[in-house]
C-alpha cells in the first residue's frame, strides 16, 4: 500500500486518478477498517481563509464558540467549504501549498508553520467507494467536514478476506477495491483533507489479524491463537508483503503523496496472551523498521489505545480499569520505538467505565488526556493525537446528544490549553462522522453533521481557532507572543496572544 501509485488527472467520476500505485496496502486489516469504527495520524493542511473571513474568524476565537455554528451549518449540504480548497473542477494543488506533515519536537509542522489537528474518523470510505451507487457518499462527507474546518481523516486502507476484500488472499488484491481507495485519496486531496491510513485491524472487522492467522492455518501451519499474528514468521511475512507489494496503476506512489498524513500499524493493537508486552513490542519494532524502510518520508504511528503498562508502574492508576494494564500494550514503551513519529491515544469513557456517572467519566477524560500530553512532552518528546474519541448516544447509553457535546467540548478544552503553550497535545479525531442515509452503519457514535447542528458548531469554532493559529504563527511562536499582524482587510491589528 505504501508504494501504491495514484494520479487523478480528471476530477469527474470515474477519475481513478490514473492511480498507478505500486502499492500493496501497508498493513492489512487496518483497525477494523481503520479500526472498524475508524477510531488514527496526522495530515498537514495549510488552510487559506476566503477573503473577508479572517476578521470574523478572529472574533469567533474570542467567544466560547457556542453560537458560532448558526450560519455555517446551513452551508453543509449545498456549499463548498468556506476555506479555500484545491479547485474541485480539476486544478491540482501546487507543491508548495501541499507538503508533507513533519514533526519538530512535540509539534507537527508544515514548513515552518505549526499544524494542530482537528479531524474525524470514517473507516468506511473505501468500502462505499467501490459501488458507484454509494461512491458519492465519500464526496458528500468530505464536503461536510470541510465546511466545519476538519482537516484530517482516519480511515481503513485494508479489508482482508470476505465481502469487497481489498486483499483476497495473501498478496492477491482486488483491482476495483484498489481503485476505490485511490478515489478516496483523490477526493481527500481535492478538499484538502489529509489521511491517516490504518494497515490492519486488531479486531475481526474487515478481516483483521484473525484473517491472517486463518490464511496461515489454511496453508498448513499449526497456529493456536490469533496472537500468533505477532510472532509467526509466515504470518509476519504476509503482513510485510502487504506493505511493500507493488500494484502499478498510475504515476504517483502513495509514499510520495502529501495527502497521506501518516500510516498506522494496526487499529487498537492488543496481545492479551502476553501481558508483559514483550511479544507486541518486538512486533512493533520489526514492523516500524519495515514500513520506514519503504516510506521514510511519511509519519508513522502505532495505533494503540494509550493504556499504560509494566514499564511505567506509577502511571497504571491513570488507566480506566485494572484490565487495561494487562492487554499487552504499554504506552511509554511502545512509543519509544525507532521510527514511530507520534503517539496515539483513544478515549471511550462510556465503554471503559461502564456504569460510572457522567461527571466521573468527564473527570477521567481530563486526567487521561493530561497524563498522556505530559508524557508525550516530558518522556517521549513527540506529539500526541487522540485518534479516537467518542461516546455513544444510543437509547440505553448514559450519554445523549447534549452530553456528547459536553464531552467534545471537554476534549477540545484540554487540547486548546496544550496548544496555547505550544504543548504536545497536537489534536483529536472524533469517532465518527457519517453522511445522510448511512444510519445502518451507525454504532451509536456516529455524527451526521447536518442533523447535529450544535455539535457542528462546536467543531467549527474549534477549527477556526486552530486555523488562525496555524496560519499566522511560526513553529517557534507561542500563543503568549505579542507579534502583531494586519487583518486581511487592513483595518485591524491582530495579536497572536488573543488567538
From TrEMBL:
<dbReference type="InterPro" id="IPR045053">
    <property type="entry name" value="MAN-like"/>
</dbReference>
<dbReference type="GO" id="GO:0000272">
    <property type="term" value="P:polysaccharide catabolic process"/>
</dbReference>
<keyword id="KW-1133">Transmembrane helix</keyword>
<dbReference type="Pfam" id="PF26410">
    <property type="entry name" value="GH5_mannosidase"/>
</dbReference>
<keyword id="KW-0326">Glycosidase</keyword>
<comment type="similarity">
    <text>Belongs to the glycosyl hydrolase 5 (cellulase A) family.</text>
</comment>
<dbReference type="InterPro" id="IPR001547">
    <property type="entry name" value="Glyco_hydro_5"/>
</dbReference>
<feature type="transmembrane region" description="Helical">
    <location>
        <begin position="42"/>
        <end position="62"/>
    </location>
</feature>
<keyword id="KW-0378">Hydrolase</keyword>
<protein>
    <recommendedName>
        <fullName>mannan endo-1,4-beta-mannosidase</fullName>
        <ecNumber>3.2.1.78</ecNumber>
    </recommendedName>
</protein>
<dbReference type="InterPro" id="IPR017853">
    <property type="entry name" value="GH"/>
</dbReference>
<keyword id="KW-0812">Transmembrane</keyword>
<dbReference type="GO" id="GO:0016985">
    <property type="term" value="F:mannan endo-1,4-beta-mannosidase activity"/>
</dbReference>
<feature type="domain" description="Glycoside hydrolase family 5">
    <location>
        <begin position="100"/>
        <end position="431"/>
    </location>
</feature>
<keyword id="KW-0472">Membrane</keyword>
